[in-house]
Amino acid sequence: MACRMCINAHIDPDLTSDNDLSYIGDGDCADGYRVMFRSGDARPTALEFEGIGRDRCWHPLGSYEPKFCPNCGRRLTENEEKGR
To answer: What pLDDT, in 10s, does the model give residues 8-20?
Structure first.
């Protein structure tokens, strides 16, 4: 079974892309920034980097699609290109 960070419909038959989206805070950041681990929603699993703007809303700064889960080390086969 996958860890709580990388479980999604790709690996768990009880989940679908309609009920598997999760965002989990990952690590410490400077004030006004955050790193979130996104999994599910039929999108690649990714680390997302965000900063808070003058409007007090979070805005994307960048993202990274890892090959392995940073928590449990599972190979994120859902991030591999089709046909590889």
So the answer is: 888 888 888 788 8
C-alpha–C-alpha distance, residues 73 and 20, integer Å:
20
Give the closest residue to 49 by CA, choosing from 39, 37, 40, 31.
37
For the chain, the domains span 1-84
Burial of 7 (0-12, 13-18, 19+ CB in 10 A): buried
Terminal Cα distance for the chain, rounded? 24
Task: Answer for the pair 39, 6: CB distance below 8 angstroms, yes or no.
Answer: yes
Span 33-48, pLDDT tens digits = 999 989 888 888 899 9
Q: Looking at residue 83, what is its pLDDT?
A: 45
